[in-house]
Design a protein that fits this description.
Elements: H1 3-19, E1 28-30, H2 34-58, H3 60-66, H4 73-98, H5 106-113, H6 115-119, H7 135-159, H8 166-197, E2 209-211, H9 212-218, H10 220-227, H11 231-266
Antiparallel strand pairs: 1-2
Helix pairs in contact: 1-2, 2-3, 2-4, 4-7, 7-8, 9-10
Length: about 270
């Protein structure tokens, strides 16, 4: 990547950190700083706009429902490539931001081998070697990289279809649609994993923090790296505290019942 782009990325990062503010409370860890969160939502907004405008042009049935959002058919056709271009630009900086932690390792290959246990929640916590991103998150990232490259290549061929062979434009339509379907499938999984499947994840992209429990449950190696504490011991300690709370609650309920029973027995 060119030095000028990297310098711009660094200036944008510093400016975002000056404008925004990360507030980390007790029992929390900073997961994503302001710059990362801003990029994430810019990429997401640009993708959704590209997706909706693209579907409006793709399907006659969706055309009548979606094109009014963008001001009609001609305006939708005009805006769609610009939405895509904004997506490419924003994701370029997200790529620079995440390229290092997204590099594939042997840990990720081992994670993929136990994907069934992950999807069925057989394990209470992830293996202790899982770092900032797990193998599934990295797969999604590189799927976006691939799709983004195909979007850009085929999009330019379609945008300037009058200067390239017609057969190449026709192939570009097919590849463009397949890349969109790949992105859509990953996007749906991403939303599910970030909300219902892993409660506490969504806040990492709103206020930037996660609970320590979330960290040692889903990314133990990252938890160890930022806290210098053993995630397994943290898990066992939490189980002990939960058992203590349950015993205390059961004891209180027995005492409460014992106090109420004599009163109930005197009621005619």
């Amino acid at each position: 990547m060119s030095t000028s782009v990297e310098q711009f990325d660094e200036r944008a990062r510093l400016k975002a950190e000056r404008i925004g503010r990360d507030v980390v409370h007790r029992g929390e860890l900073l997961r994503h700083p302001v710059y990362t969160r801003v990029l994430h939502w810019l990429v997401a907004i640009a993708f959704v706009l590209s997706l909706l405008s693209g579907f409006a042009l793709y399907s006659p049935w969706l055309f009548r429902f979606l094109t009014p959002i963008f001001g009609g058919g001609p305006m939708t056709r005009f805006l769609h490539p610009w939405f895509g271009l904004f997506f490419e630009i924003f994701f370029l900086f997200q790529f620079l931001n995440w390229i290092t932690p997204m590099l594939w390792t042997d840990v990720d290959s081992r994670w993929l081998k136990r994907i069934k246990q992950y999807t069925t929640n057989e394990d209470k916590i992830e293996p202790e070697e899982v770092g900032f991103f797990n193998g599934g998150q990295k797969l999604y990232f590189w799927a976006i990289v691939l799709s983004g490259f195909l979007f850009l290549l085929t999009g330019l061929l379609m945008w300037f279809g009058h200067v390239v062979p017609r057969w190449l434009v026709a192939v570009s339509y097919v590849v463009h649609d397949l890349a969109a379907l790949l992105m859509l499938a990953g996007f749906i999984i991403h939303i599910y994993e970030g909300t219902a499947a892993m409660p506490g994840t969504f806040r990492a992209m709103t206020n930037g923090t996660v609970t320590e429990k979330w960290a040692w449950t889903h990314h133990p190696a990252w938890f160890r790296a930022v806290t210098s504490r053993d995630p397994r011991r943290a898990y066992e300690r939490e189980n002990h505290r939960q058992a203590e709370r349950e015993r205390a609650l059961a004891s209180w309920e027995r005492e409460h019942d014992a106090q109420e029973n004599p009163v109930n027995e005197r009621v005619p």
